[in-house]
Amino acid sequence: MNNNNKFLQAVKEINSVIGANNVLRDEAALCLNSFDGSPVRIRPDAVINIPSAEVLPSVIKILNAYKIPFIPRTAATNHDGGCIAVKGGCILNLSALNEITLIDTQNGYAVAECGVINKDLQDALEPLGFFYAPDPASMAFCTVGGNAALNAGGPRTLKYGSTASNILKAEFVPPQGEVLLLDRHAAGPDVLSLLVKSEGTLGIITKLWLKILPKQPALKTISVYFKTLQDTVAAVEDIIRAGIIPSALEAMDKANLEVTKTPCPQGTDAFLLIELDGKKSAVEKEALQVLGFCQKHNALKTETASSQEQRLALWKSRKSAAAAMAKLAPNLVSLDGGIPRSNLPSAIGSVADIIKKYGLRGGMVFHAGDGNMHPNIAFDERNVYETLKVKQAVKEINMAEAAAKGTISAEHGIGVEKRAAMAFMFEDSALALFKNIKKAFDPYNVSNPDKVLPVASSSRLKASVPDDEETLKIIKRVKECYSAKTKVSICALKTNFKPKGEILDLSRLNKITDIDKNNFMVTVQAGTAVKTLAAELAKDNMYLPFPVCKGSIGGVFASKIFDNFADYVTAVDFVMADGTFIRLGGKYVKNSAGYDIIRLLSGSMGFYAALTALTVRVCAVKPATCVQREFAAFTPSEQQLKLKKVFDEYNIFNGCITGADNATR
Ligand SMILES: Cc1cc2nc3c(=O)[nH]c(=O)nc-3n(C[C@H](O)[C@H](O)[C@H](O)COP(=O)(O)OP(=O)(O)OC[C@H]3O[C@@H](n4cnc5c(N)ncnc54)[C@H](O)[C@@H]3O)c2cc1C
Questions:
Q1: Is 144 in the pocket of ligand 1 (CB under 6 A)?
Q2: Is the CB of 134 within 6 Å of ligand 1?
Q3: Residue 414 is part of a domain; what is its CATH number?
C-alpha cells in the first residue's frame, strides 16, 4: 500500500469508530490546526476531533498500526511548537474532553479530563473554599492536560510546586492503545511522572486526579520598587533564607515597567511583587520581615494592599507585562530558563547583553523565588533580518542559561523550538537514555514525533567524570558485573533491605559535598546517613523536608518512604547497569526540559540504577511531621518492566527486590 492509500485506509477505519464528521481534512481545519503559541506553522494531514475518552484508544491503535503520526492538542497555547505536525500526520483535538468528573474536598483532590480549562477548575473550586495550585498566566485558556504534559508553572509554584507535584493519578494511553491508570504514590518507580510530563511523545493523558488545597485565611500583597535587579535578587535571597515562602515572588525589569506604563519612583530599575498567604498572625509577622529585607536592599518605595481592589491594582502591571510586550510587534518569543537563584544576577546580565547586542525589543519578567526568568522578545516575522537576529539571540540565551548551570526550560517545555538546545544542557549519555525511553514506548515514532529530543545534534558537553575515588570504584565494579553478567544487590546502610548474593555497597559514598546557603540546597553522596546529614544541616539552621529517620539519603529517596521527597530533589548522579555515569539536574528549583528521570528514580529501589549522589532543596524551618511509609518490595507493572529493559537489559541490579529475576527474562 502506498502512503496515500495507507492514510485513506486508516481514515476509513477511524471514521467507523468516531464518525466521519469528526475527521476533518478541509482547508479551514488544516489551517487552524497548523499553529500554536510558537512562531512555527505546518499544516497537518488531518484533524481528528476526539468526542470522548472512551474512543481514544481505538483511534490511537489504528494510527499506530498504520504508523501515522498523531499530535495531541488541547488549547495549543504552548510557546514551543509542541502541537505542530512536524512529520505530518493527524492533530488529535482533545478539547472536548472537558469534564470535571469529581471534586472531593474531604480527600483533597479533583478528577478532571485533560481538556478542562485550568480556570474552569479554579472557578469550580472557589465557592468550596479550595484552589488548584498550578496557576500559569494563561490559566484562562490553557488546560490541565497541557499543563501536565509540560509541567507548567506560575507564581504559586515556589510555595506549592509545579504541575508535576500536584498530580496524584492519571489515566494515560500509550501508542499501542491500552488504558493505564498510573498512581504517583504506588510502590516502585514513579512511571506516572515520566509518562505524563513527556509532551505527548510517549502517549496521551486522558484524565487527571489533581491535588486541591483549602484557601488560606489571610493574603497580603506588597509591591516594591528597587534601584537595581541585583538589589531585588538580594532581597529575595534574604526572604527565602528567613524561612518565608511567599505564594508569589514576581519581578520585572525596567523594559517591562516602561511597556506597562507603571508609575515608578525616579531611579527605579526593577519591581518586586510579594504575596504572602497563611494564618493572619503569621502573614502579618512575615510582611514586617519582608519589608525589612526590602529596606535593607535599598527599596525606593513599597506599597501594601489593604483591599482586593488594591491587590489587583498591584498585580496589574505584572499580569499585563507579556501582553504589553506583545503589542510592540506582531510576534513574541517567550523563553523560560530556570537558573540557580545565586546565578540569577549574572544570567540576567548575560541575557540583557544579548538582547541589547542584537538591538531587539525585549525585557524580562521573573518568578524570582524559583529563579525562573522569562525573557520576552517582540519581533515582526515578516522582517527576515530581524527574525534571524531573534533566532540567534534565542540560541545564545539558551546557551547562557545552560552556562549559568540552569535549565533551558523551567515551565514551557521543549517542543520543536528548543529541541536543538537540549544539546547545551544534557550530555550524550542522558540524551541516549531519553531516546531509548522514547523507543521503548513508541517504537514507530508516531506519538508527537520529533519533539523534545534533538534530531540531528549531539551534546555540546563533555561527559561528566566523578572526581571522587569511591564513585569511580563503584563504576569500575558495575562495569565488571556487567561484563560478567553478575547480578548484584545495591545497598548502603542495610536499614530495611536485606541484600542477597553479590553486593554493590554504596555505604562509602558518605560525603556531604556542598551545603549551599544561598540556594538553600545540599549536595550529598547517596550512602550518607540521614542522621549525619540532618545534624550537619542543623548547624546552619537548615532542615531536610522530612523528619530525621534511619537509613541513607539515597535509600530514603529510592524507597519513596516519604511521599513528596522527590519534589525536593533537583539533581541526581547515577550509574547505569552497563557502568555509564549520568548526571541530571542542577540547583534549579523546577524543570520542564527532557523526561523526568529524577522522579522516575524515586521509588525505583535500585531496580534501574545505582544512585551515587543527590542535590536536595532544604528548608529553613523544621518540617511538620509527615507519614513515613513502610519499606516494601514491589511487583513491577508492565510499564516498570519495560523501563527496566531500558536501564538494565540483563537484570544486573536488584532483581531480588521484586522477584523480577524471572520476570525480565
Ligand atoms: C499569554 C500566555 C501566557 C502563558 N503563561 C504561562 C505561564 O505562566 N506558565 C507556563 O507554564 N506556561 C505559560 N504559557 C504557555 C502555555 O499556556 C502552557 O505551556 C500550557 O501548559 C499549555 O497548555 P495547553 O492546554 O494550551 O496545551 P497545548 O499547547 O495544547 O499542548 C502542549 C503540549 O502538550 C501536549 N499535550 C496536550 N494535551 C495533551 C494530552 N492530553 N496528553 C499528552 N500530551 C498533551 C501537546 O502535544 C503539546 O506538546 C503561556 C502562554 C501564553 C500564550
A1: no
A2: no
A3: 3.30.70.2740
